[in-house]
Design goal:
This protein is an alpha/beta fold. Helix content is 29%, strand content 22%. It folds into three domains: 23-131, 3-Layer(aba) Sandwich (Cobalt-precorrin-4 Transmethylase, domain 1), CATH 3.40.1010; 134-271, 2-Layer Sandwich (Methyltransferase, Cobalt-precorrin-4 Transmethylase, Domain 2); 302-406, Rossmann fold, CATH 3.40.50. It has 13 helices and 22 strands.
């Protein structure tokens, strides 16, 4: 028994100082972007903590949650410094969390914190998951990750490039869907190009790919394009890339990787190849085209120019796309018939140049040279396509290019030169720019207007 009161107080104080009260550190994944993108648990933990440590950029994204809290922030390459400081605060009994964009365990701070805390076994560490960029990007692009996939960072700051190249070869050869993180920076301008060239050693250049920049943040943008076009894409550290596998295709402007279910629809899985020409409401650019491999592959379709002067062309539909089609065809001298119960204002402007049959679609006259289906009824468009093909008439079905026998291009004209442009990779912005550039060359260099 301890009889001296001073000695007793010293003894109790020593025991208490050796015990671990509130010595817990959270490592929290904040998801792709703003507060709204993080999980409910992540938000609750951040709100309850006294100290929050993180990369400056990610701190700014959630600053609305950090009022009255001590903030430990560093820039790029300051990871060890801020994680060490966070551990020190936690060992002093404060409620501390280290935030990490996306998921803290996917190229995040979870591993570093656990490594640094090895010498502090009394410190409890809880990892709180978040939504990683691969999943967030996939949600924007469609459903490209519904089969086996790999995630590879192209940053060689912490991993040697020769190791990264081995992983790229292995993932591509094994037909994994591949998500690329950190594809480029100011110091790494060519890594994405090199990665694509490696992957194309094992995979078709026509493989559908998707890119998403600034996921979940202001300025978010996305694009679907082909692997051989991805080679030249100007990416940055805020870009996430998804490269499809051999079965990935594009439909309705969405990337889809079949899981293997028997869906009994018009998009069989591995039996079909892909070509991604999507419809831009503002331009005459074709939609996604899916073809059977026994047919000629779509990117080998030969541009075919035909005289349309006084030729009968049927347009079924009265909307803005139909009006744009009609105006182009009229410029080429076609005799245009429009079948639609109603027509838009743009079409009304040219009623003196067309034949408008104010009715619903009921069939096709065999005398038409071309047929264009642009109604807002999917089944009607499909029927038009089937009827035209049965009569041997070339048909363009606006919402299903796999049912079309010709594609309607963007047109550039000048000095007797005609150019028709389409995209093989769903890149309508590139088509729009290309058409504009061609028009400028024809107008400026040749001295004639379109």
């Amino acid at each position: 028994m301890v009889r001296d009161s001073n000695l007793l107080c010293l003894f109790v104080s020593t025991i208490l100082n050796g015990m671990d009260f509130n010595m817990k550190l959270y490592v929290v994944g904040t998801g792709p972007g703003t507060v709204e993108e993080m999980t409910h648990k992540a938000r609750l933990i951040i709100e309850e903590c006294d100290v929050v440590a993180g990369y400056e950029f990610y701190i700014d994204l959630i600053r609305s949650l950090l009022q009255g809290k001590k903030i430990i922030s560093t820039g790029m390459t300051g990871e060890v410094e801020r994680c060490t400081a966070a551990i020190k605060e936690a060992l002093e009994g404060k409620k501390v969390c280290v935030i990490s964009g996306g998921d803290a365990g996917v190229y995040g701070m979870a591993g570093l914190v656990l490594e640094l805390a090895v010498k502090h076994p009394q410190l409890e560490i809880e990892i709180v998951p978040g939504v990683t960029a691969a999943c967030s990007a996939a949600a924007v692009l469609g459903a490209p990750l519904t089969h086996d996939f790999s995630v590879i960072s192209l940053s060689d700051r912490l991993t040697a490039w020769d190791i990264i190249t081995k992983r790229l070869h292995a993932a591509a050869q094994a037909d994994f869907i591949i998500s690329l993180y950190n594809p480029a920076s100011k110091a790494r301008k060519n890594h994405l190009k090199k990665a694509c060239e490696i992957i194309m050693q094992h995979r078709s250049p026509q493989t559908p790919c998707g890119i998403v920049r600034n996921i979940g943040r202001d300025g978010e943008s996305s694009m679907i394009l082909r692997l051989d076009e991805l080679v030249y894409f100007d990416a940055d550290m805020f870009t996430t890339i998804v490269i499809g596998n051999s079965e990935t295709y594009v439909a309705n402007n969405k990337l889809i990787t079949p899981r293997g279910y028997d869906t009994n629809n018009s998009f069989p899985t591995s039996q079909y190849s892909h070509d991604c020409d999507k419809m831009n409401p503002q331009e005459s650019v074709p939609h996604c085209h899916i073809t059977n491999p026994q047919e000629p592959v779509p990117h080998q379709r030969f541009p075919f120019f035909i005289p349309l002067e006084n030729k009968k062309v049927l347009i079924v539909g009265g909307g803005r796309i139909a009006a744009r089609r009609a105006k182009v065809l009229l410029d080429f001298g076609a005799s245009v018939t429009v079948v639609s119960p109603e027509i838009c204002a743009d079409m009304i402007e040219i009623t003196d140049r067309i034949v408008w049959e104010k009715r619903s679609y009921s069939g096709i006259d065999q005398n038409f040279t071309l047929v264009i289906a642009v109604t807002d009824d999917r089944q009607v468009n499909k029927q038009i396509g089937e009827n035209a093909k049965a009569l041997g008439i070339y048909v363009s079905v606006a919402d299903r290019k796999e049912e079309s026998t010709f594609w309607f291009p963007a047109i550039a004209r000048g000095s007797g030169i005609i150019a028709g442009l389409i995209s093989e990779a769903g890149n309508h912005k590139a088509v729009k720019k290309a058409a504009s550039d061609v028009r400028k060359v024809l107008n400026d260099d040749l001295g004639e207007s379109e």
